[in-house]
DNA sequence: GTCGGCTGTGAAGATCCTGTGACCATTTGC
DNA sequence: GCAAATGGTCACAGGATCTTCACAGCCGAC
């Protein structure tokens, strides 16, 4: 199983409202020219990707946690159909784009029926491959809605984005929407200090006017609720002249360890604006019909 | 706006529980030969379909409650892109398959980026069009899952998708269609908070305009019926500024446990088998690679 | 230690959101 | 065609939330 890994580590979490457009995909192909060109484009998009030169068993694909797989059926040989069917069965959430040489209508129909999401005929432009992968992933993601996001723990507090709420010992803190957004944002920073301006622009969506105290007020409300529910811990720390930092800090003498919020990597898997956008379209001439 | 209607009444509900392999699609094209052949195939499959010969405004498409739309961009003229973008924005759940004459890579990429799910180049085999439409629809439907019979229990309420009805102690709540779709959707979320926009787009199929109160109104109707039939429980919880959450909550003091809807594990499972399947492949020669 | 600026705090509107009943349009059943 | 059922809109009222403001306390600089 030859494979070259271009990917960096986990995609950077871009915060609660943030939208990381980076996808994780794999290309199963042997056509070195095609791979090279495609890889270059993928790099530029910042997508994590790996190239596989030989068929991998379905459960190996599972562990790659891919958004989509681009595959040339020719690499798979006679077992192609069986492999495809098995994979689609095992990973119903994986986007599968077949990108292969000339084929008959019957073959394409068969592939699509077995579970492939798209079928592109080589030779093809890498840009089109990417656009089709995006289309497939976009469709797939939509109904799953909110981030699956496992709950985030910090000290005694559990932040559950599926409920828009934080809990201490199973008891809800009764946070309002803004309060929740704030704690979510702070916790996602994993112990970093966030400046007021940044907090403001992330929560309110526009830049803060000088003298606005909204952030402070919400920090206070949040502190009150946290204090009431979890008196033996401090969570939000003020950095004078800068902003705030979130870290669970026990007040018990024997253990004064600081624990930044533990975030699962899937955090902030939202998908706004994942398209590279107009500036890329301009590379190509787009004429009307 | 010439249009010939082959379809009959309401199609399979596009709501959460809608389970039927018959799709409702529209074809926007003027190529009579293509239309004729395609229509014949669609008839044989038992899919409801209508043929449109001229562009229809996006909101007219809304009322058709389609699963997918096959469109030849050439029919739309210079406004094609704009029309496509508008439609995709308004109906994020509609599958859109562009089927048009020769095009450049740039055009295809643009179309896919704007929201089209697939792009087929004419001339093409109707069987492939159908397979791609199926693929697009399958992709979207997946997470909604087939609700195979198993009733869902939450508190005293039993939700039976096979009957499109909810019961308390064997007594029907007399839910209307929308009301049932709503309770089913909420219950399927398993205790997660669903935002209004999401509820709306899942039930109505298109994006909610600001200020629309339909969701609230149906929540009220549902609450009334639930309250009447099961007064000692609360089911639908409001999350201010966000949406609603479904969880059975007893009002009896001794046990104030929250019980999210108990869903059978099959829920949200893949939905193979809805494809017409192998017997159709046999019409075509399927050779291996 | 003093001073200016920054932050914490409480409270008072202003604003936004939801619950509700009434009303109208459309569909369905007779 | 008529009546009932259903779906959807509207305006109003009450409540929840957000924003603003003034003041007090705290921090760091000099």
Report how far the terminal alpha carbons of chain A are from each other: 45 Å
Give me the strand/helix succession of chain A.
Answer: EEHEHEHHEHEHEEEEHEHHEEEH
Question: Which percent band covers the strand fraction of chain A?
Answer: 15-25%
Oligomer: homodimer
In round numbers, the mean pLDDT of chain A is 81
What is the count of DSSP helices of chain A, taking H or I runs of 4+ residues?
10
Strand order of the largest sheet of chain A: 1-3-2-4-5-6
Task: Determine the fraction of residues in helical runs of chain A and give it as a percent range.
Answer: 25-40%
Instruction: Characterize the main sheet of chain A.
Output: 6 strands, mixed
Number of strands of chain A: 14
Q: What does the radius of gyration of chain A come to?
A: 23 Å
Structural class of the secondary structure composition of chain A?
A: alpha/beta
Largest interface: A-B, 57 and 61 residues
Stretches with pLDDT under 50, minimum 5 residues of chain A? 1-20, 264-288
Shape of chain A: elongated
């Amino acid at each position: 199983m030859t494979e070259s890994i271009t990917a960096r580590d986990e995609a950077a979490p871009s915060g609660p409202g943030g939208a990381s457009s980076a996808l994780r995909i794999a290309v199963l192909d042997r056509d070195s020219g095609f791979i090279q060109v495609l890889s270059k484009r993928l790099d530029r998009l910042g997508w994590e990707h790996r190239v596989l030169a030989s068929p991998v068993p379905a459960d190996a694909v599972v562990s790659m946690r891919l958004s989509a797989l681009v595959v040339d059926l020719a690499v798979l040989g006679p077992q192609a159909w069986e492999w495809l069917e098995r994979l689609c069965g095992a990973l119903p959430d994986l986007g599968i784009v077949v990108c292969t040489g000339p084929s008959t209508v019957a073959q394409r129909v068969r592939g699509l029926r077995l579970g492939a999401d798209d079928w592109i005929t080589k030779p093809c432009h890498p840009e089109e491959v990417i656009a089709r992968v995006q289309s497939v992933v976009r469709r797939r993601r939509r109904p799953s809605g909110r981030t699956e996001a496992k709950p985030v723990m910090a000290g005694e507090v559990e932040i559950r984005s599926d409920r828009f709420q934080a809990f201490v010992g199973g008891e809800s803190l009764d946070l309002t929407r803004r309060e929740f957004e704030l704690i979510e944002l702070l916790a996602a920073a994993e112990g970093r200090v966030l400046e007021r301006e940044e907090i403001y622009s992330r929560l309110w969506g526009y830049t803060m006017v000088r003298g606005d105290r909204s952030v402070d007020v919400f920090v206070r409300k949040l502190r009150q609720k946290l204090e009431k529910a979890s008196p033996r811990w401090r969570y939000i720390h003020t950095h004078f002249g800068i902003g705030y930092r979130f870290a669970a800090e026990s007040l018990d003498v024997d253990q004064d360890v600081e624990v930044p919020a533990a975030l699962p990597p899937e955090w902030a898997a939202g998908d706004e604006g994942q398209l590279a956008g107009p500036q890329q379209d301009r590379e190509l001439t787009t004429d009307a019909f």
